[in-house]
Design goal:
The chain is an alpha+beta fold. It is built from one helix and four strands, in the order αββββ. It has one domain. The protein has one helix at about 10-20; strands at about 35-40, 45-55, 60-65, 75-80. Strands 3-2-1-4 form a four-stranded antiparallel beta sheet, with helices on one face. The radius of gyration is 13 Å and the shape is elongated. The model has no long low-confidence stretch (mean pLDDT about 95).
Length: about 90
């Protein structure tokens, strides 16, 4: 059964889009870290937080939390928490 929230692959795609929107080529993404939080409406979890980090030429999922309590609205959506090392 598919999840009712974004998954790590979706967060990676959003992160790559954000980096491209900043005009950064893929070679300059190393060290970037992103967090995506949401409060799904029809899911068994009240909130989901996923963090991904660019290490070398790969994305690594560094956090995947499913919580019984919602997160504040200010923590939802995609946020860059560490800029690229460029």
């Amino acid at each position: 059964m598919p999840c009712d929230h974004v998954d790590p692959k979706d967060v990676i795609e959003l992160a790559e889009g954000a980096l491209r929107d900043r005009g950064l080529s893929e070679e300059r993404w190393s060290g970037a870290k992103f967090r995506h939080g949401e409060n799904p409406q029809r899911a068994m979890w009240a909130s989901v937080v996923i963090e991904v980090e660019r290490r070398g030429g790969q994305w690594v999922v560094t956090r995947l939390d499913r919580n019984k309590e919602p997160i504040p609205e200010s923590e939802t959506g995609l946020q860059m928490i560490v800029p690229p090392a460029c």
